[in-house]
Amino acid sequence: xxxxxxxxxxxxxxxxxxxxxxxxxxxxxxxxxxxxxxxxxxxxxxxxxxxxxxxxxxxxxxxxxxxxxxxxxxxxxxxxxxxxxxxxxxxxxxxxxxxxxxxxxxxxxxxxxxxxxxxxxxxxxxxxxxxxxxxxxxxxxxxxxxxxxxxxxxxxxxxxxxxxxxxxxxxxxxxxxxxxxxxxxxxxxxxxxxxxxxxxxxxxxxxxxxxxxxxxxxxxxxxxxxxxxxxxxx
Length: 234
Known about the structure:
This protein has helices at 41-49, 70-76, 93-103, 108-121, 137-150, 167-179, 214-233, and strands at 4-13, 16-26, 30-34, 56-61, 64-65, 77-80, 155-159, 183-187, 199-204, 207-212. It is an alpha/beta fold.
């Protein structure tokens, strides 16, 4: 069973409590996360990927305690950051894609072979020797996504992947996300990106304000944000 299990998690950072007692079970193929800045969206996906560890409680993805089993986490869940420059380590595309595979224990030659196979599958074999900094932001995001796909995780998480992209690039990234076979958790400020999803979480100040299908949660969320906008304009 593919599942994210968050059990009675308390998360504090810099003396502030982000989640006081969060319990969730996520099994759907397409899950959207909305909420205002500071609501805990990015903290949630960092918990799920094991990049931050809770003070109390457990986070398991497909049975793996991600904060403690980093090798298991790498093989199970991947995260595409909002800014690809915060994710890319190596100057050359092929090496960037191969890096995670080497972290999983593959010999370098096999990691490079698999990296080239991923590039070919995405129709980007000509990028193998390209320098990452010469690519556009959307292209660098695709490099990051290919690095994740090379690891063959069951879950891929996206933290505001459409920020700072022009419309054609954003639509291309959206289409790639829709075509993924993996389970997806997508954090976004744009509710329109989530209308075809299976489940929506609305976070508010570290708690679940609403949890359900898009047709139920998104209209409530939009109405609440519009009310806040009206109040701010007064």
